[in-house]
Amino acid sequence: MLATLCATAPVLAQDVSLMDGMSPREGVNPVVAAGTYAKPAPWKIGFSIWGFGNTWMIQMAQEAEFAASQNPKIQKFLVTNADSNPTKQIADIEDLVAQGIDALVIAPVSLTAVSPAIEKVTAAGIPVVIHSTAVDTDKYTVELQGDPIHFGKVMGDFLVQQLNGKGRIWVLRGQAGVSEDQLRYDGLVEALKGTDITISSEQHGDWSYDKGKQVCEALALSDPTPDGIWSSGAAMSHACIEVFQDLGLPLPPITGEGNNGFFGVWKAANATSMAAVFPPEQGAAAVRAAVALLEGRPLHHRYVGRPAPILQDRRDSFYRPDLNDNLWFPTGLPEAKLQEIFKK
After folding, report:
1. Do 52 and 163 fall into the same domain?
2. Diameter over CA atoms, the chain
């Protein structure tokens, strides 16, 4: 009797697992009803991303392509690269639709520019899965996003703990004008509430190694001996550690990100650090969401990822000295694929 009941029980949206750390977003969050987009396999899925501007985006696409290659129901997985150009991404979307895609998976290049194109695809009855970057419309099928406020806050919480709630810190932000930068910073502000920690210097390093190094070198002259450093990205953290080493200065606690290159310098310098996590597996999770919709399974409209940070006690279980600096953690790629893509 129990076996019969289990076999006939309806699949619920919460039963569909997309990625570790990814869960339905709180608040108003309707469910896409079972069967809404059900379609017999094989399927053709379009995958549009805003560009390969950094190693994280490259790995995100690789994770998505691997996930698609492992599903025999996906006959074609069509990848397009917008080269950071909204006009090109709109043209890419139109071309994918013309090729008869059964679902569209997209990391939008712009908060606003591609929204009308996304709305048009949704209105045509094609399921649209948004991931990694946001849009200013809710007329899509499913959205998967990281939580930049959580990302910035776990970094801030680490410094609050390390400094016992008091001291001066540098703040190395990302790219000015980008929502991800502002929201990560908002998370830091939330973490510092009620403490005696002050921001003595604040600069934008553009999430870049070169710009981050310039900023850290300048700050080391103008505002020496900070008690801690809040850095919004791995490349800037990497650069800052090297600046302190080059100048022979004691390195204060510094935040980092889940990147193999950063983990190497973190370990070599014996730095007091941690890594906030923004998994590139989001690309694969978005492919899984598209498959679930085409299989007729129910999903929530919005999902959010808030994975736990990687602290020093777990660092060495992720760090791969045999692989190159471009690997991001956590990853859903198997060992053979990691060796193929990231071997030194």
Report:
1. no
2. 74
Distances (CA, A) of 248 to 231, 242, 269: 20, 10, 12
Q: Rounded to two decimals, what is the model's pTM? A: 0.89
* Dist CA 318 CA 320 (whole Å): 6
In a domain, residue 330? The reply is no
**Cβ(11)–Cβ(34) under 8 Å?**
yes
Could you say which DSSP state residue 21 is in? T
Same domain, yes or no, for 70 and 178? no
Token digits for 218?
């300048």
**Could you give phi then psi for residue 139, rounded to 5 degrees?**
-90, 65
Tell me how far the alpha carbon of residue 334 is from its chain's centroid: 19
The pairing of strands 128-131 and 142-146 is: parallel
- 201-254 pLDDT tens trace: 999 999 999 999 999 999 999 999 999 999 999 999 999 999 999 999 999 999
Whether residues 21 and 126 fall in one domain: yes
* Phi-psi category of residue 44: left, alpha or beta, with phi > 0 → left and psi -120 to 50 → alpha: beta
Q: Which two tokens stand for residue 136?
A: 């200013």
Domain that holds residue 125: 12-146+280-307
